[in-house]
Each structure stands twice: as structure tokens, then as C-alpha cells.
Write a structure and sequence with these properties.
single chain, alpha/beta, Spore Coat Polysaccharide Biosynthesis Protein SpsA, Chain A, seven-stranded mixed beta sheet
């Protein structure tokens, strides 16, 4: 069974067209009215005759992540095997759903997301500031999630297999616009396989609810905290491997080199005696070795992307 979750907030002008474009490969459609001021849930009930549609309501606005999680939970209760998340603003081509879910049907992935950066031709319609912002966000997401092969983390056109979704801590995932990035971090902690589907974004007269200042002020800190958690979970709590050792050596060498070098530099200023060549080498060499160990860790981390789908293991 395939289900589609559509978070609904200020998308009244587009929601019916979005629903109409969903093909017969989908069994259930959940429209989640996230305390929408346009009463989009009631609007869908009154104007949509598709029997697959069910409207869910929030009594308080929770954000796109909160609305999606509500739909996820209902889909799980209704025994859906694959759950698609589709925005209600018309920027996503619902005719691509069969292509989006194909890797899940074939047990090749646990989570599939759209990628608007795969083909340069797809970027022509994207505003320049979005291109620039998405590029920066994508790099931060790679470091925080561990999926170095994934681009366009803010893309909300996604599909997830039931086996992966059941093992995610849904109540702990960010409920606002950081949802798409946070779920990638959570997926990595359970070693889920993530794949991408090339797609073209559709831009019309819709208005984004995302505020740029929120991204600039909040996202870097959230990405950094997720990166630290992922490294701790994957390299020290659940496993200890060569990457774990390389990171420890990098930290020890760099810290020693910086502290020793700073001490000798301040000592030379106070005594007016320049540091000897040996002292400079003793301070600089650990820093060089530390960065070499850090680059070795990054190389290991890039190669440590999950490759065995959870969906191929049957029900847990």
C-alpha cells in the first residue's frame, strides 16, 4: 500500500490541483491541515470527491515537520508500506511518484528524495539566491547527516519505506523547516540507505513560508549539533573503528600543537628570545599530522555511507 502525506498550510489555491495530479498507484492521501488560517482542510472536504483523501487536523500550528509526522503516524496505523511526502504548493510534479517510489519497491533504498540539482537544465527556473543558499545548506547537511552523496536536503518531495519509518524517533525529529535535514540525520543513525531522484522544480505564484533569517540564524547551529551527535553515535557509542582512531589522533595532535605553539610564542615575546627552529618544528609538525588524520577521517566517513537497505531485511 502506498500513501501520500500533504502538509497543508496556506496552500488553498493549489491543493486541489495537487491532489488531482496524484495517480492511481497511490491508495491513501492524507491532507494535514496544520491549523491553516485559510481552513484548507475544510476546503478540501467540501471540494474534493476523491475517495482516497482523508483530512487530518491540528488544533495548533506545528510546522511542516509536525504535519508530516502526523500523516506518517496515520499511514503507519493504516498499514502503508511506502509513504510519500508531497508539498501542497504545486512545486512538485506528482506524476513522478511512481519513479520516486521505485527504489523502495525494489528494496534498493529505504528513503528516496528529489534532487533539483542533478541536471543543470533543471536549475534554469530556480532563482539565483535559492541556488546559492541550497548549495551552502547542502554541504552542511552532508557533514551533519553523513550522506555525502545527497544533494538538495531541503527538497520536500520524499518517499520512505515502512521499515525505516518505524525505527525513527518521530517525536524527536524537528517539526519545523529543519525537518527534511533532521530526518536524514536520524536515518543515518539507523544505517538506512538514501537514494535520490532527479526532478525539476515548478515555480509559479506560490509563496514560501520559510523565513530566510531563520535559516541563517538557526540552521548552522542545528547542523553542527547533529554532526557531533552523529559522530558520537556512529564512531564511539555503536562502533569503534579506524575512523574513530583517526579522529582522536587528529584532535590530540592539533590541540597539542596549538597549545604548545601558543605557549612558546608567548614565551618568546616575554623573553625577547626568538623560538628555535626545533621549537617551531615541534609545534608545527603535530598540527600537520593532526590535519592529515582529520582528512583521513573525512575520507573514511565519505566511504562509510550505508549501502544495505533495511527494507530488504523484512519486518523488524
Amino acid at each position: 500500500m502506498v500513501a501520500v502525506v500533504i502538509p497543508s498550510y496556506k496552500v488553498r489555491d493549489h491543493i486541489l490541483k495537487v491532489i488531482a495530479g496524484i495517480g492511481r498507484e497511490v491508495d491513501n492521501i492524507y491532507v494535514v491541515d496544520d491549523f491553516c488560517p485559510q481552513h484548507s482542510g475544510d476546503f478540501v472536504k467540501e471540494n474534493c470527491t476523491d475517495p482516497r483523501v482523508r483530512v487530518l487536523y491540528h488544533t495548533k500550528n506545528q510546522g511542516v515537520g509536525g504535519a508530516t509526522i502526523t500523516g506518517y503516524k496515520q499511514a503507519l496505523d493504516d498499514k502503508a508500506r511506502i509513504i510519500v511526502k508531497l508539498d501542497g504548493d504545486g512545486q512538485m510534479d506528482s506524476s513522478l511518484i511512481p519513479k520516486l517510489i521505485e527504489p523502495l519497491r525494489l528494496n534498493q533504498a529505504d528513503y528516496v528524495k528529489g534532487n533539483r540539482f542533478y541536471d543543470l537544465a533543471f536549475l534554469r527556473q530556480m532563482p539565483f539566491l535559492r541556488k546559492l543558499g541550497n548549495s551552502g545548506v547542502s554541504f552542511m547537511n552532508k557533514a551533519s547527516s553523513g550522506y555525502w552523496n545527497i544533494m538538495d536536503p531541503s527538497n520536500g518531495f520524499t518517499a520512505i519505506h515502512r521499515n525505516a519509518l518505524e525505527n525513527l524517533p518521530l517525536e524527536r525529529i524537528d517539526k519545523r523547516f529543519f525537518f527534511e535535514s533532521d530526518i536524514l540525520f536520524r536515518l543515518n543513525t539507523i544505517r538506512a540507505v538514501v537514494a535520490e531522484m532527479p526532478m525539476r522544480a515548478l515555480y509559479g505564484d506560490e509563496q514560501s513560508n520559510l523565513k530566510v533569517h531563520r535559516v541563517v540564524l538557526q540552521f548552522p547551529f542545528k547542523y553542527f549539533s547533529r554532526m557531533l551527535k552523529r559522530i558520537f553515535y556512529n564512531y564511539y557509542l555503536r562502533d569503534f573503528n579506524i575512523g574513530s582512531l583517526e579522529l582522536i589522533l587528529a584532535f590530540v595532535f592539533i590541540v597539542f600543537g596549538v597549545i604548545f605553539g601558543a605557549y612558546k610564542w608567548s614565551e618568546s615575546i616575554i623573553t625577547s628570545h626568538p623560538a628555535t627552529a626545533g621549537t617551531v618544528i615541534l609545534a608545527g609538525l603535530p598540527i600537520i599530522l593532526g590535519f592529515q588524520s582529520l582528512f583521513a577521517f573525512l575520507h573514511f566517513d565519505v566511504a562509510n555511507i550505508p549501502h544495505k537497505p533495511l527494507s530488504g531485511m523484512g519486518d523488524w
